[in-house]
Amino acid sequence: MIKQVLISVSDKTGVLEFARELVAMNVKLLSTGGTAKLLAENGLPVTEVADYTGFPEILDGRVKTLHPKIHGGILARRDLPAHREALSEHQIPTIDMVVVNLYPFQQTVARAQCSLEDAIENIDIGGPAMLRSSAKNHKHVVVICDPSDYAQVLGDMRTAKGEVSDSTRFMLAKKVFAHTARYDGAITNYLSSLGSDLAHETRSAYPDIVNLQFEKVQDMRYGENPHQSAAFYRDLQTADGALANYRQLQGKELSYNNIADADAAWECVKTLEGHACVIVKHANPCGVATGQDAAEAYAKAFQTDPTSAFGGIIAFNCELDGKAAESVATQFVEVLIAPFFSADALKIFEAKQNVRLLQIPIAQAINAYDMKRVGGGLLLQSPDARNVQLPELKIVTRKQPTPQQLQDMMFAWRVAKFVKSNAIVFCANGMTLGVGAGQMSRVDSARIASIKAQNAGLSLAGAAVASDAFFPFRDGLDVVVAAGARAVIQPGGSLRDQEVIDAADEQGIVMALTGTRHFRH
Hints:
The chain has 521 residues and is of the alpha/beta class. It is built from 19 helices and 21 strands. The strands form 5 sheets. A 6-stranded mixed β-sheet has the order 8-13-12-11-9-10, sandwiched between helices. α14 (322-328) links the parallel β11 (312-316) and β12 (333-338). The longest helix has 26 residues, at 166-191. The two termini are 57 Å apart.
């Protein structure tokens, strides 16, 4: 039975209503500082911790709950006679519930002008100690660190005459240890990002010690291959527009490969303007296009490589309406992603219940880091979020581009960023014509891209070509020009740039340099 609760919260969301419900159940309130003041001002009977312990808050509030009468009341095991005798001897009542959330350290250090002094003052000491004490003794103490859990605790207490179930207690305890680990991790990340020159407090983007925290979304039937096990985890700092915040409207459970490919499709389609569609197979775009509406964008994207599109992942950056849904429904698709699905589209896919429909809001969510696991370690880098803009292009050939060629080159460049290296992408009129991906030789990628276009019955005459990295020799350029390209966009930066530019001039084509490389491994 819950008889006494200690409440000390930085985030006061819902705490007043929660405390009122507890008082109505005859639970005594202990509190500190601003929380005690809030409860008292709203007419709730509350005892200040300083009055309870008989020892005043000191050191500007740094010491208030670090007292035997607090931690003894929390940590005592009610099922051990020796613990009960110790409580009786020292006149320590039990504390049956602890409601604590911590100083806003993460919000503080996120501010651009945060000083080391500000950060240090926002490191909570008493709060984590009480949370950990309560979580350790969760069989006897209910612990809450998240206001969203107030309702469940009250629900348990109403149905069990003031008691909280063992399963709820254990769930809350696990949540507390994850919460304090994340809190301590944030402190470590911040402090270890500071250089030795504290006078200037220079922060590195890559701390000496990095702590990351993810929560499990689901266990998976298997990983990339059936002999591998797997699970899907969500970054606790994920923004709305990230794949991990999908809402599944229908379909089978997502597989490991579904999620990996869906992320590739979603990240690509978010960067495109107008009505756009991206079809992905094995993490590579096999068809990308824009159109007057979703249906036209899909039809153009599908044209690029109908064979590879079979069983692919399809993403739209606009509402999927009934017209587009009718077209998509004629092919085998594993996952379909859009920010919105019309009622007509949902009705069409009711007949295809195995198709996974994912709804994700359009927002430019960017991960803090890109990560790659290697043997015994981890590679961290900033995300490849750079999108070259039209005014940044440097035209290096005598031949100048037409407005249409500029559009085609920019479209091809956006797509190439999401194709595995070495990447060569032919485009024209807002659609991909041929994609060469993941080859050890750039020349081979160029040949594969032209073969893909030929197999799909698409002409490359007058096309624009994007290369994710520079042409080290003119041979790759010669292949794409022979296939029909009349405009090429590439980063430049090779020792043989002039040789490649001269080859472009020799063949009377346009070449633009971006100064930005987009390797993708």
